[in-house]
Amino acid sequence: MKGPAVVVFDVGNVLYDWNPRIPYGRLIKDDRALDAFLRDVATKEWHFQHDAGRPFAETSAELSAQYPHYADMIALWGPHFHEQIPHMLPGMQALVEELDAAGVPLYAITNFSGEFWPPFRDREAAIFDRFRDIVVSGDEKLTKPDAAIYYLALERFGLSAEETVFVDDREENVVGATDVGMGGLLFTDATTLRADLVRLGLLG
Description:
The chain has 204 residues and is an alpha/beta fold. The chain has 12 helices and 5 strands. The protein has helices at 21-27, 31-41, 44-51, 56-66, 71-75, 92-101, 117-123, 125-128, 137-140, 147-157, 171-179, 190-199; strands spanning 6-9, 106-110, 133-136, 164-168, 183-186. The protein has a 5-stranded parallel β-sheet with strand order 3-2-1-4-5, with helices on both faces. The model has no long low-confidence stretch (mean pLDDT 97).
């Protein structure tokens, strides 16, 4: 049976580190207070609404009404979101460049705010210009692991599920891809991923 010919990446925590502590750690010096803010107020679950397509103006107003003491901190989330994604994960730039040099078509499906994506994509154009297309959940108002976002991506990319392998750090998102017929790899680190891609015949 012929193996996959195309790699479809997740972005956050696969290609790039995502860590809200980075900008907020400069603003909230007490570790316990910082932990409490990110655990109880500006949580990743709250942020997921942006990935699903809700505007930051709405979500921040709601959260600020609930936690008025933190309103100034909440307001910084959107304008400083790019600072939460400071750099690529170790080895991933080299791996993307190696795949691109080998002629492997690169695509992405990312749970990412449609508002926050354009400035981040522009900042990282040297990497994302190597990708043929990227489906952004916030633009589509569909999120992984909903089967609909994988089907939409395959149609837009002009690919069959069987010719793709999808890479994500969350098991439920990998399962979502395999449930629609795509290959799936659970990301842990660049070295392991490269070995998996060699095994699949995508790299030598």
